[in-house]
């Protein structure tokens, strides 16, 4: 290693020299390019048990420096065999997250710059790029120009931030006085569909609302929130002295990608003066497709919306966009400026729009991605995925072994296999999915709808092709037939 500090004491451990960095980053770039080209050769999920990888890792950090070659060799030999490959074409579990090349390059640059955009002055371009890129996102998904927003880490945090704003709007004194011991203050209540994501529950816990004040509004046969039930619950709560503060509708629920009727929800929220939040963490980017806009009707009337480019917009983790119509309502909930963070500039400080002070320069990757693909390149990929989902729907539809559930409006398909009579459908499908995943060629995940065990196939990966979706279908058929021939215990 070369000497990197002329004042260094004897025995100083040198960091990387510029030349060593150049060489190592070229190797890493080469390794990443190889990984991306060959990812389909790995098993999509690792064949390991809990603790297997930990057992291979030294219990103590090394005292002496190690070479980059040794570190990269261990990455290959120890870490990689224990990874689930989210970039694998067969990754169709949960909602995917695939890191596109411009996103990876932007992350590299982001790490190198390592700016903290907490204040405008701590990196003016980071703040101004973030605000501009969020405007691009709004335009891309067809939201009107009165929306603005910020980029946070996750939808969980975005929803939590929106909830603090709703709480503040209901009672600005909560900032100072809190919720506990306030006999004069009725219980604050929050309304979500019975199919809403658990991040809503967590936000309710973290905001001190309490899960017993989270109303899970019944859904209709399409798994969409029922507005009549919402109105009824709000009315009943008001009569009981509660204070309804937020309704959170979902466009693209996690289980079945159902769409809550946002037009009607907006109507109710406006009438009742309740904050209207929309969780579109998964489906949001698809609003860029004119042919899907109808699914988003009414979301433009929301007070806040979250959508996650790190789900279906080829952006590496983490990147969640929170947009709102009244920035002051968000700012008022959490903003706080201690002396050591005060500055003389008349500028927007991003730290005021969320819980975290320090924040990564996430805007850079969205900027790279928008510019690399162009809006049209992104729309092409959404349409391609939706087309693949429709291929799968048509194969399932034509096959008496399977039932489809939900509407597959986006690119996630929900299905159940129909077992031979006498077999428990729940257990059958649980075993079927496990058997399919055991091949490690595709990775599917499940949910429960109407008490039925449902297998989800979610298509959002940059690498997925029709042959991969066909492979998932063929494996489902093959394992189903094998179980029929041998019985469930096989
Ligand atoms: N909302 C919906 C509809 C989701 O499907 C998910 C995760 O899948 C989330 C919120 C939470 O996302 P995050 O991991 O960004 O907090």
Walk me through the structure.
It is a single chain. By secondary structure, the chain is an alpha/beta fold. The protein has a 7-stranded mixed beta sheet with strand order 1-7-6-5-4-2-3, with helices on both faces. Strands 8-9-11-10 form a 4-stranded antiparallel beta sheet. The protein is built from 15 helices and 11 strands. It has helices spanning 18-38, 52-56, 68-79, 101-113, 124-140, 155-170, 174-177, 198-206, 227-239, 262-272, 309-312, 327-334, 363-397, 425-438, 466-486, and strands at residues 148-152, 188-193, 214-217, 243-250, 275-279, 304-307, 320-324, 402-405, 412-417, 445-449, 452-458. Helix 6 crosses helix 8, helix 9 packs parallel to helix 10 (262-272) and helix 14 packs across helix 15 (466-486). Pyridoxal-5'-phosphate binds next to helix 6. Pyridoxal-5'-phosphate (PLP) binds next to helix 6.
Mean pLDDT score: 96
- The CA-CA distance between the termini, in Å, is 58 Å
Strand content: 5-15%
**How many helices?**
15
Q: Which word captures the global form?
A: globular
User: Can you count the beta strands?
Assistant: 11
Main β-sheet: number of strands, strand sense, barrel status? 7 strands, mixed
Strand order of the largest sheet: 1-7-6-5-4-2-3
SS class: alpha/beta
SSE string, helix = H, strand = E? HHHHHEHHEHEHEHEEHEHHEEHEEH
The whole-angstrom Rg is: 25 Å
Work out the helicity level: 40-55%
Bound molecules: pyridoxal-5'-phosphate
Q: Flag low-confidence runs.
A: none
């Amino acid at each position: 290693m070369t000497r990197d500090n002329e004042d260094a004491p004897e025995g100083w451990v040198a960091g990387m020299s510029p030349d060593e960095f150049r060489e190592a980053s070229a190797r890493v770039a080469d390794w990443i390019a190889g990984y991306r080209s060959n990812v389909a050769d790995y098993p999509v999920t690792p064949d390991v048990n809990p603790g297997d990888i930990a057992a291979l890792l030294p219990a103590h950090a090394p005292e002496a420096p190690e070479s980059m070659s040794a570190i990269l060799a261990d990455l290959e030999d120890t870490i990689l065999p224990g990874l689930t490959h989210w970039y694998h074409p067969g990754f169709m579990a949960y909602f995917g997250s695939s890191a596109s090349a411009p996103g990876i390059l932007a992350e590299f640059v982001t790490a190198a710059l390592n700016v903290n955009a907490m204040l405008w002055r701590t990196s003016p371009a980071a703040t101004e790029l973030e605000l501009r890129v969020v405007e691009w996102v709004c335009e891309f998904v067809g939201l009107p120009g009165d929306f603005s927003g910020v980029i946070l880490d996750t939808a969980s945090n975005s929803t939590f931030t929106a909830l603090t704003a709703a709480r503040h709007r209901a009672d600005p004194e909560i900032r100072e006085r809190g919720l506990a011991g306030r006999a004069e203050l009725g219980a604050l209540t929050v309304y979500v569909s019975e199919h809403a994501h658990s991040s809503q529950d967590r936000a309710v816990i973290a905001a001190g609302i309490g899960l017993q004040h989270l109303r899970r509004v019944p859904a209709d046969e399409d798994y969409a929130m029922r507005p009549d039930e919402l109105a009824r619950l709000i009315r009943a709560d008001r009569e009981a002295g509660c204070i309804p503060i937020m309704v959170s509708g979902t466009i693209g629920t996690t289980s079945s990608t159902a769409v809550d009727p946002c037009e009607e929800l907006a109507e109710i929220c406006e009438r009742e003066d309740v904050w209207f939040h929309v969780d579109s963490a998964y489906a949001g980017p698809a609003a860029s497709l004119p042919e899907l806009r109808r699914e988003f009707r009414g979301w433009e009337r929301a007070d806040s919306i979250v959508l996650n480019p790190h789900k279906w917009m080829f952006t590496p983790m983490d990147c969640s966009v929170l947009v709102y119509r009244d920035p002051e309502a968000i700012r008022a909930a959490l903003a706080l400026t201690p002396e050591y963070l005060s500055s003389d500039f008349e500028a927007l400080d991003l730290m005021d729009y969320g819980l975290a002070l320090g924040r990564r320069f996430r805007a850079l990757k969205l900027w790279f991605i928008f510019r690399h693909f162009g809006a049209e390149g992104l729309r092409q990929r959404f349409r391609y995925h939706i087309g693949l989902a429709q291929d799968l729907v048509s194969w399932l539809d034509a096959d008496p072994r399977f039932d489809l559930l939900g509407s597959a409006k986006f690119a996630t398909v929900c299905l159940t296999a129909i077992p031979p009579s006498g077999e428990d459908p729940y257990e059958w499908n649980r075993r079927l999915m496990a058997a399919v995943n055991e091949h490690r060629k595709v990775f599917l995940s499940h949910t429960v709808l109407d008490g039925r065990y449902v297998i989800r196939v979610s298509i959002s990966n940059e690498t997925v092709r029709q042959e991969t979706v066909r492979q998932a279908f063929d494996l489902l058929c093959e394992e189903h037939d094998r179980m029929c021939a041998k019985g469930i215990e096989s």
